[in-house]
Amino acid sequence: MSRIKIDYGIDLGTTNSAIVRMESGVPVIKKTDLQSDTMPSCVYFNKKKSISVGMTAFNSYKRDKLSMMKSFDVSESNSFIEFKRTMGTDKTYHSSNMEKDFSSEELSSEILKKLKSFINDEEITSVVITVPAKFNTTQIDATQKAAELAGFSHVELLQEPIAASMAYGLNPDKSDGYWMVFDFGGGTFDVALIRVEDGIIKVVDSEGDNYLGGKDIDYSIVDGLIIPYLKNEYKIDQILNDSGKKTILRDAMKFFAEQVKIQLSFNDSYDILTDLGDIPGSDDEGEEIELDFTITREEFKKVVEPVFQKAIDLSIQLINRNNISSSDLSQVLLVGGPTYSPIIRDMIKNQISSNVNTSIDPMTAVASGASLFASTRDIPNNFQKRDKSKLQLELKYDSTSVEMEEFVTVKVLRDQCEGDVPNKLFIEIERTDKGWSSGKTQIENDADLVEVILNPSKSNNFSIKIFDEKGSVLECEPKEFTIIQGSKVGDSTLPNNIGIEIKDVFSGKVGFNTVPGLEKNNSIPCVGKTPPLKTQKQLRPGIKDDYIKIPIYEGEYGSEGTKAIHNTLIKEVIISGEQIPKLLPSGSEVELTFNIDSSRRIKFEAFFPYLDDTVELDIDRTITTIISSENLQTEISKTKNQLEILGEENNSENIQTLKSEVDELKNMLDNGGDDEDNRNKTLEKLRGTLKRIDKEEESLEWPNVEEELRDSLDRLKDTNSKFGNESLEEDISKISQMVEKVIQEQNTKTGRDLIDQIRSLNFKLIDEGAGVALEINIIKGFDDNFNTHGWSNPTEARKLIDSAKSIINSNPTKDKLRSIVIKLYGLLPDVDSNLETNDDSILTN
C-alpha cells in the first residue's frame, strides 16, 4: 500500500533490535524469521562470503569467541556485536572471511536491512529510528549514515526516552506530574525527566552514559566471579598479563556470564557447569579449562550492584539538579532488558521511587513508541509513491490530541489524479472499531471539514470512503488515518549544550561558550546565534593559508567556560581566504548562526558584516579517532600527577574522591586496554573527571578572584566618576549587588565572568571618554616597562610595539591600535597556559 505517514519504527539496539508497524491504529511488532519480538544485533560473515544477521549470527558469534581461545588469535573473528557503542568512531571490524574491514555504520546497516526483510507485503523507504538521548552529534550522523546504507530514503531520528514515554502514554491509568524514563539497555543508559500535564508529554531534562549497559554487567560477572574462579583452579597468569589474550578470555567467558545474569535474576543460586571441550582453550600449562562452580544470589548481587548504582546515581543527580524530590515522581518507566532484574527494581524502589511502572514490555517499549511517533509524521511529498489511478486526497489534522473531538480537513487533488473525476463527490469517515461514523456528506468545492470523535487513551484509526453521485465507491489515497488520543508529545530536546571555542579578549583564556539558543534541554528544531565575535587576523581573498577556525563542541551540564578539549568535538569549521570575495581585516566582526533540525542535523552560517557576505555549510560528521591504550595511560598518569599537586595545596575530601575515580579508570584500562569500546568509555569518564578537577582548581583560586573582583569594581567606579554619567549609577549599583552575591557564594567561575563584564564596561567608558588616547597610553605603558612584563615571545612583543609607535606617529586610529593591544595582551605571561591560547585563528569575544 502507499503510505502518507511513516508508520514504521525501529529500535536499533546495542544487543537487540526490533521493528514495529502501525496497523489500523495499533503498533504491531513484526516477528523475526524465528518468530521472536526482537533480534540480536549481531552480524556474521561465513567462508562463502555470505552474511548472517540475528540469532543465527549470534550463535556463530558465540562459537567464534570460544574458538579463538584455541590459538588466542583475534584476527580469526568473523562475527560482530555491540558495534553501536563505537558508532561515529574510526573503529573498524576485520573479517578474515571477507578479507576486509567494516565500520560500525556498515554493520548497523546490515541489522537495518534484516529488519526490513521481515516486511514482505510492501517496500519500506521511510522509517523512524531511535537513538539514545545522550548520543552526540557524531553518533547521530553515523546512525543516519547506517540508515542510508540500508536503503532508507527518508529517516527521522527519535530519542529513546521519548519513544518509551509515547508507548506508556496510551495507558488509561497514566497520571500527570513528573515521569522518569529509566532506560537501561544492552550498551547504553538514558534517564529522562518528563513533565506530563493534561496528557501533554514534555522532556524537562535528561542524563545518561553511552558506555553503561548490560554489557558492563556481563563483564562485571566475568571479572568479579568467573576469572577469580579460574585463577584459583588454573594457571592463567600468562594469559592475564597479555592484554590481547585477556580480552579473548573475557569475551569467551561473557556468554557464561549472560547465563548467570539471567538465572540469578530469578533464582537464589546457579551452577555453572561445562563439559569437557565446551571451552576449547587451555591454561598456561596446557590443562583444558572447564567451569564447575556455584554462584549465589548474594555473590552475584555484590558484583553487579556497583554497575546498577552508577545508573541510580545519574538518576538521583537528574532529580536533584531539577529541584524536585523522589516523591514528585508519579511513575518510573522501565525500559531495556536488564530492568527485568529484581535487583535493579529493588534499588529503584529503595533509592528513587516506589512508583515503578512495568505495564509494558521493557524490551519492545521503545520500538512500539517509535511506530506511534512514526504514525504522526508525514512522508515528504518527494518521497511518497502515489498511485494516481486512485482519487488523491490531502488530509490535515492533529495526529496527537488530548481532546475528545478533532477536526479533519479533506481536500480533493484533481490535478494529481489520472482519468476523469466525477463533479459530485461524497465522503464518509468511520472509526474502524465501528463505534462512530460521520455519515455520508457531499464535498463542496473539493474540500470538506469533518469533526471526528475519539476513543480516550487510544490510537484511533479511521477509514475514508469516497462515493460518486450514484453511490459507487471510488478508490482513494490515503484511505485511512490515525489520531492518538490521550497524549501529545512535545518536541525532542538538545541533550547537551552546543557551543564554540573562543578566546576571551581580556583574560586571554580559551574555553567553551554555549551558543545562545542552543542550551541543553532546548526544544528542537531550534536556531542559535552568537553575539558578534571578532577575528584576530586578516584574511586575504584567495589565500588558503589565511583562515579562521571555529571549533564546534557539545558540552554536558556545567560545561560553560570549561576547557573546550574536555568536551566532545562536533566539527572544526575552517573558513579561509578562498571563501571570501575581498580582504577581511583583522578585528572584523563575525556573526554565527546554527540551524538544528528535529534529527539534530546542523546547518551553519557565518555572516561577515564588513564583506556583507555569508558562508553557509552543512556540518558533516567528524569521525572520532579512538585513543590508543598507551596515550590513554599517559593521560591518566598526567591526571594523577595533577591531583597529587592539588593535594599538596588542599588535600580535601573532593581530592580524595577524584583520586579514587582516577584509580578506577586505571583499573578499567588494565582490564580491557585492547578493547576500543572500553577505551572510549574510559576516555569519556576521564573527561568528566578533568572537568571536576578544573572546578577544584577554581575553588583554590577563589581568594585571588575575590581580590580582583573588588579591585575591578573600584576601578569601574573611579572610571565612571571621570567619564560616566548619572544614568550609569543604577547599573553600577546592580553590579555591586552582584559582586556581593558572588563573594557570598564564593563562585569562582561566576566571579571570573563578572570580572570580564566589569572590565568590558570599564574599557567601554574609558574608550568613549578617552578616544584613541586609551590605546596610546596602553602601548606607552607596555613600551616604558617592556622588560618587566615577562613576555612569552619578547621578539614578537617588541615588533608589535614598534609597529604601534609607527602608526601613532603617522595616522593613529582606534581600530588599528586596538588590534595590536589585543595581540600584546595575548603575549602576557599570566595568560592561560592552554597551547591554543596563542592560536590567532580562533575568534574572540
Explain how this protein is built.
- This protein is α+β, with helices and mostly antiparallel strands and 845 residues long.
- Among the domains are: 8-170 and 367-374, 2-Layer Sandwich (Nucleotidyltransferase, domain 5); 386-468 and 477-489, Immunoglobulin-like (Sandwich), CATH 2.60.40; 629-682; 702-838, no CATH class.
- Helix content is 37%, strand content 24%.
- It contains 19 helices and 38 strands.
- The strands form nine sheets. Strands 1, 2, 3, 4, 10 and 11 form a six-stranded mixed beta sheet that branches.
- A hairpin with a 5-residue loop joins strand 25 and strand 26.
- Helix 5 packs across helix 7.
- The chain is globular and about 90 Å long.
- Mean pLDDT is 87; it is low at 830-837.
CATH superfamily annotation of the domain at 8-170 and 367-374: ATPase, nucleotide binding domain
> What's the number of helices?
19
- Please estimate the helix content: 25-40%
Q: Report mean pLDDT, rounded to a whole number.
A: 87
Radius of gyration: 31 Å
Shape: globular
Strand elements, count: 38
Derived from helix and strand composition plus strand pairing, the structural class reads: alpha+beta
